[in-house]
Specification:
CATH class of the largest domain: Alpha Beta
Number of helices: 16
Structural class: alpha/beta
Strand content: 15-25%
Radius of gyration: 23 Å
Distance between the termini: 65 Å
Strand order of the largest sheet: 14-15-16-13-12-18-19
Largest sheet: 7 strands, mixed
Bound molecules: ligand TXE
CATH architecture of the largest domain: 3-Layer(aba) Sandwich
CATH superfamily of the largest domain: Aldehyde Dehydrogenase, Chain A, domain 1
């Protein structure tokens, strides 16, 4: 199927008529095309979005919350199709796409609708005056999203942006256009006013760049790689656009010597290999207390070797294809680098080492890989690989674990596994990061702040943080008579 732009309530080709092939990474086959848009398409879209903004912002937040519920209902009706499209676009297991991508995309709309209904007026009384804080829309906002959790991450931005009265110009990853298209079909079918939600497809340096540069787009919410994020900031910041950047991660999974080993192994596998390790929150560096390291490592390798890899459509598949052949080559080059840096591959490796995993030789399949013996400062241990590869590091004290955890340029997430939650909490407070889980991973309460420090990004999204980002507060101070 072909993914066309959705502008002013209708699906249209790019003005220049150009397209990009869309490849299913599990088969290597083209499954359709997407529009290859540029600044001309963005110009048309911004005009539509600006026109729609007046009526949309005139609705109350509660009326807009009802629209979010209608979109959620529409997505729910097409949930299976949503999961199928996500799996076909990304190569991820269909079961995962159902459980995570489809479900959480729906949940994002529902969550923000409910959250809006719980908002209390922001009023600050003085002895002689009353302050009333209004949350005004920003106007038209630009949303740029990656390929790893396509609609999940896009809906995480779309829902609060709409709720706060903004209109949207969104650009999904050129590798995964299909579910953004489904969301637009739903928006059209439920009757969302034209021009409120617009999607333009194409390459980052072309249509993405035009969004960054357009003077009428007053805020950019971006999720993607750190290098792209740096470019986004350099382009948008001098125009004083509001910026939210959710970038890469190289997160530590810390196993203390008092952890329940079976629970820690299961958690480490989940943190390391969910979505083939292609989640910015994945725990790709496992830090384990030296006294239990051998036992833990043996159990981890056994668990990883029992994972089912292969055809995304099989119910039992835990690891499907990576996003593309190019990305797989990048991941393989890191495994090779790990070997050159002195690492020992305990299981997995490059496809040359392990042979064909998936159903098709054209598919981007790679066995989950565990590398031991690397210095914690090695490139393989500190750079984001974004694939099914974890490295193991030993520590002898809490201080040493914290030092290793903090020794990357990233600071997005992490997890600590221990039977002493107070001790784990004390360690968590000293990790330079945005979120730490204790004895769990990816356990999300959507009211909490989400985002990173250092090169993992700027700002937070989630609950009140999202409402804050997608609005401009206006304080009215009224002097009492
Ligand atoms: O991301 P990009 P890529 C990491 C991961 C991965 C690396 C590169 O390490 O290997 O980033 O992945 C758009 N102006 N993450 O290349 O390029 C692009 O079209 C405006 C982490 O896919 O950052 C896409 O829509 N937009 C991550 C979006 O930016 C531009 C998830 C993200 O793509 C642009 C994905 C430009 N000049 C990758 N150039 C996470 N944190 O979850 C590109 N884009």
């Amino acid at each position: 199927m072909n993914a066309m732009n959705f502008i002013n309530g209708i699906f249209v080709d790019a003005i220049d008529g150009e397209t990009i092939p869309n490849i299913n990474p599990a088969t290597g086959q083209a499954i359709g095309t997407l529009s290859r848009s540029n600044h001309r398409d963005v110009e048309t879209t911004v005009r539509a979005a600006a026109t729609a903004q007046q009526d949309w912002s005139a609705l109350s937040m509660l009326e807009r919350a009802d629209w979010l519920d209608r979109i959620a209902d529409g997505l729910e009706d097409r949930k299976e199709e949503l999961a199928q499209r996500e799996s076909t676009d990304t190569g991820k297991p269909l079961a995962l796409a159902r459980r995570v991508d489809a479900q959480r995309s729906i949940d994002n709309f529902r969550f923000f609708a409910d959250f809006a209904r719980k908002q209390a007026p922001e009023v600050f009384e003085m002895s002689d005056a009353t302050n009333i804080v209004h949350r005004n829309p920003i106007g038209t906002v630009g949303l740029i999203t990656p390929w790893n959790l396509p609609l999940y991450l896009l809906s995480w931005k779309v829902a609060p942006a709409l709720l706060m009265g903004n209109t949207i110009v969104a650009k999904p990853s050129e590798l995964t256009p299909l579910t953004a298209t489904l969301m637009c079909e739903v928006a059209r079918d439920v009757g969302l006013p034209s021009g409120v939600l617009n999607v333009v497809h194409g390459y980052g340096p072309e249509v993405g760049q035009a969004i960054l540069e357009h003077p009428s787009i007053r805020a950019i919410s971006f999720t993607g790689g750190t290098a792209t994020g740096r470019h986004v900031a350099a382009t948008a910041a001098p125009m004083f656009k509001k910026l939210s950047l959710e970038l890469g991660g190289k997160n530590a999974t810390i196993i203390l010597e008092d952890a329940d080993l079976d629970v820690a192994v299961e958690g480490s596998v989940r943190a390391g290999f969910t979505n083939g390790g292609q989640v910015c929150l994945c725990g790709s560096r496992i830090l384990v207390h030296a006294s239990i390291a051998d036992e833990f490592t043996a159990k981890l390798v056994e668990a990883v070797e029992s994972m089912t890899c292969g055809a995304p459509e099989h119910e039992s598949t835990q690891i499907g294809a990576l996003i593309s052949q190019d990305h797989m080559k990048k991941v393989e080059s890191y495994i090779q680098l790990g070997i050159e840096e002195g690492g020992v591959v305990l299981t997995g490796g490059t496809s040359e080492m392990t042979g064909q995993v998936g159903p098709s030789p054209e598919g981007a399949f790679l066995r989950p890989t565990v590398i031991d013996g690397l210095k914690s400062t090695a490139r393989t241990s500190t750079e984001e690989i974004f694939g099914p590869v974890v490295t193991i590091h030993r520590f002898n004290s809490d201080d040493e674990a914290i030092e290793i955890a903090n020794s990357t340029e990233y600071g997005l997430a992490g997890s600590i596994w221990s039977s002493d939650s107070n001790r784990a909490h004390e360690i968590a407070k000293r990790i330079e990061t945005g979120i730490v889980w204790v004895n769990t991973w990816l356990h999300r309460d959507l009211r909490t702040p989400f985002g990173g420090v250092k090169n993992s990004g700027v700002g937070r999204e989630g609950g009140a943080w999202s409402l804050g980002f997608f609005s401009e507060p206006l304080n009215v101070c009224i002097k009492h008579d």
